[in-house]
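Session log. Operator J.P. requested a structure for one protein chain; no other inputs attached. Running the standard single-chain path with token output.
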Amino acid sequence: MLKIILKKSPIGYEKSQGRTAQALGLRRLNAEVLQADTPVIRGMIRKIRHLVEIQEVAEKES
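Structure written below.
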């Protein structure tokens, strides 16, 4: 799992970068979301890597 934190506002960048942040579930500054570590999510993070901070989190055992 990946913990993604929006550290910088997408305002002033390409609109697609703001839409990418929203697609990840990031609505406000310092918002945190947990996403699965998949190639699709990694690609989205790579597009907005200058706006976010990423931390790897151990999977929760059910």
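Operator note: The domain at 2-56 is CATH 3.30.1390.20 (Ribosomal Protein L30; Chain: A,).
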